[in-house]
Write a structure and sequence with these properties.
The strands form 4 sheets. Strands 1, 14, 15, 16, 17, 18, 19 and 20 form an 8-stranded antiparallel β-sheet that branches. The chain has a 7-stranded antiparallel β-sheet with strand order 2-3-4-11-6-9-13. The chain is an alpha+beta fold.
Length: 356
Amino acid sequence: MKPVVLPHHQLRCFYRGGENIADLRGTDGRDWYPEEWLASTTPRFGETVDGLSALPDGQLLRDAIAADPDAWLGAEHVAAYGADPAVLVKLLDAGERLPVHVHPDREFARRHLDCPYGKTEAWVVIKVEGEGPHVYLGFREDVEAQALRKLVDTQDSQGFLDLMHKLPVAVGDTIVVPSGTPHATGAGVFVVELQEPSDFSILLEHAPFDIDGTNKGHLGIGFDLALEAVNRSAVDAVEIDTWRGFVDLDSTGNAPQKTLADIADPYFRADLVRPGPPRSRPLGPEPSATVPAGFGVVVVLDGSGELTGSKSGESIQVTAGDVLAVPHAAGDVTVTGGLGAVWSRPPAPDQAGVGR
């Protein structure tokens, strides 16, 4: 098996955006299509197929993995997580500020949503636009349950934002958002997003986005219960620093460069892979970087090059805007050429059960 270039898979959502995804992917731009779900085996909440990614032949990736999980994921991964990639990767292009929302943790999801996964997520910022790009993350002070419910009932958008940390962001910034943490991505922020493989969002703020919060904001369990998933405790700047990282997206190296803070390790991994510019033949072989065998989701940010699997020896040419699913059976993958890519992976098998 070798890496597979995936078809375009941009989804319509309730908020604006999507032009940057279209620019990267080389497709026609459409507003209100701000997310592309990449190599997804996770359907949208309440759906059975919508959100799932297809292979070039039209087969759903979910079905291909179910038919041969060891080849796609590796025996150790399957032993730890089953026939599930255990990660969902997206491109998210916020054309406007997203609503303040929260994702439940694993314990809450197991108890109330019949799912082993919560939704810790992370962002790798690949482009920003506008003045003062930023995100909102966590409460700056403790919030009583009654006060939180009042904010939800009155849909006090400014009240929510006034309670939260407002963090400036730039290209190369990375942020892990632990489950339970209120957050919102600001307008003009384009990210590769990694998350646990669920679509659980509790929309604390919904009225300004023309969403019927009584039906769609609380995952069908009612706000009385859903709000128990919110971390109402203050988060200080010292703790937030442990969630943040930075990677120079132009930096080169002969090995994958870790992008996310260590707190992400039980949930997912993301590396920058950029082996360096091509060399002329008299100077010897082109620079290369080798990624260890394992399921991966690759977003080629720029340039072009070649991916070669160690097991088959087969190579595939890739270029800016390509998205690939990499099967474990490809073996170690050597990347050559002048390209830069974000290479997302599930948590390591020895991390099973470590996350909350």
